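User: Fold this; tokens only.

Assistant: Input:
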Amino acid sequence: MKNAEELINTELLEIFRKDKYLKELAKIYVDNCGISIAYRSVAFDLFCDYLEDKYDLIELEIIIDYFNILMDDIDIVHRNYDISFNIPEEEYERIKEEINNLLILYK
């Protein structure tokens, strides 16, 4: 089995690093470390959805690796925090709409 470094496509990573929408999602995640697990979780979900929709990337392990690299570019502190899948649906939808409205210019 290959390790994470061998599975990362460096050309694709550079495309992701230039993608303002992905960079903003990574920034939202990092900015909410220690503040809001809900915002981090929604930002991660939107990141996954965007990679699947725009780049046909669906393997969760690889998506997480790319997300971690983009967040490392901002601040390594994010590695001390995780996401949650136990957010009430109405809160999740409210945050998702808020983030989408904020990032509409980047899509």
